C-alpha cells in the first residue's frame, strides 16, 4: 500500500520526532568512564607540573647563589635565566586564566559550606587558592565557543610561538638537539592531512579544542603547561652550564640534594644524598640535616627516613665550608618529597573493552609516578608502547573477562613494584550492516538506485579505523505471477545484469538483497542481514 494511502498519524509523527531528538542526544553524550579518565589524567598532569616547577625553582636558586659569589661572571647568564622565568610565568598565567574563564562560563561556582566539595566532584583551584566546583565537565559547547569562535586558542598559539622563539634565541645554533627538543615540545604547526580520515584539513586550534568536552580541554591545557615547564627546565639548565666551569667550581659552591625519588609509596623508605657541588679533597664540609650534624664521606651525607603516611613532607639543612681564604661560608638547602599510597588507574582510551584483532589504545596513571617509570603486562595478549600511551593486542576472545588481566608495575628507586591488576573483557569486532546509498532498507528512488555502484558493509558507531568489504551478494526481484528472479554478484559491485533490472523497475517494486558476505581487515568473514528496498 502506498504511503499516501497510509498517512502518519499525529501521534506517530511525535514519536518519530522524539526518536530523532534522542538519537542526537546520544550522539552528543560523553561516556562517564571517559570523563572520569580525563579527570584522572588532569590530576596526574597537575602533580607532574608541580614536580617540574619545584625542580626549576632549585635551578633558579643555584643561579642566585652563583650570582652572589661572582656577579661579573654569572650576571649575563642569570639575566637570561630571569628572562626565561618571566616569559614562562606569563604564559603559565595566561593558560591558567584560560582554564578559570572556561570553568566559570560553564557554571563553575566556589565551594562553600552550603555547597561543599565531595570526593566525586571535579574541581579547579584558582591562582588565588579559590576552589571552583565544575558541574558540567562534559560541556562541549562553551569550550569550543570560547577557544575557537572567540579565538582564545589562536591567541594561545601565538603566545606559545613567541615563547618558543624566545627560548631558541637563547640557545646557540650549534646546539641542534636542544633547539629541536624545544621546537618539538612547543610545536604549533597544523597537523598533516590524514587521507584515511577523508583528507580533512585541520588547524592546530581545531584539532585540540573543537568539539571537546571541558574536562578534556582542561587536561590538554595542563599538558601544554607541562611542555612549557619542561622547555623552561631545558633552557635554564643549558644556561647554567654555560657559566665557566673553572669559575663555577670555586664561586658557585652550593648545596646539592639528590633523592632516589621525589615520589615515595607509603611504607617505602625515602633516601636522598646531600653534598657540596664543588668538592675539595683536602677538607670535608660540615653538613647539618634538620639541625643535626650528619656523617660525611667523600664530601657527601645521606638522609634516610621511613615513610608511614601519605602527604608532602619537607626537610632542610646547612652546609658549612671553609674557603681558601679561611672564611666559613654557609649554604642552606631545603627539599620536599611526596609520599603516595599505592594506586593505579587504567582505562581503554576508546571503549571499555578490548577488541580482538585491533590495536586497542590504553592509558594508565600511577598516582603521580611518571609514565616513563610505569610498565604494563597482561595475560591473553601483548602490550607495546606508542608515545605516552600503550597498545593492547588481545589473543583470544574473553567475553566474561576471566582470563584477561592487565597489571601495572612502577620502577621506584630501582625496584619493580606492583601497583594494581584489573580484569578486562575481550570481544570480537561487531558485525557490520549492509547499506546501499547510505540506507539499510526502506524506500528509495529509482534514480538514486541507478547511480549506486554496489553494496557497502558499514560499522555503525564503532570508534576504530576498521573496515569490512562485501565479497558477494544476491539480488532478488519479484516478477509477474509472484516468480522471484535471482542475480548473483561475486563482489561488492552491482553487475551489468543487475543494473539492467534496475532500469526495468516500476514504482512500488520490491528488491531483496540477501546472502551478503563481508570480509574484515582482520581476515574474518561475516554473514550480513538481508536488506529490502521499495522503489518510489
UniProtKB/TrEMBL annotation:
Q: Which gene encodes it?
A: gldM
Query: According to the lineage, what is the superkingdom?
Result: Bacteria
For this protein's source organism, the top of the classification is: Bacteria, Pseudomonadati, Bacteroidota, Bacteroidia, Marinilabiliales
**Which part of the chain is the Gliding motility-associated protein GldM second immunoglobulin-like domain?**
343-427
Question: What is this protein's name?
Answer: Gliding motility protein GldM
InterPro entries with a match to the protein in the record = GldM_Ig-like-1, GldM_Ig-like-2, Motility-assoc_prot_GldM, Motility-assoc_prot_GldM_C, Motility-assoc_prot_GldM_N
What NCBIfam families does this protein map onto? GldM_gliding (TIGR03517)
* Residue ranges of every copy of the Gliding motility-associated protein GldM first immunoglobulin-like domain listed in the record: 246-341
All copies of the Gliding motility-associated protein GldM N-terminal domain together span 33-241
* UniProt domain Gliding motility-associated protein GldM C-terminal: residue ranges: 430-536
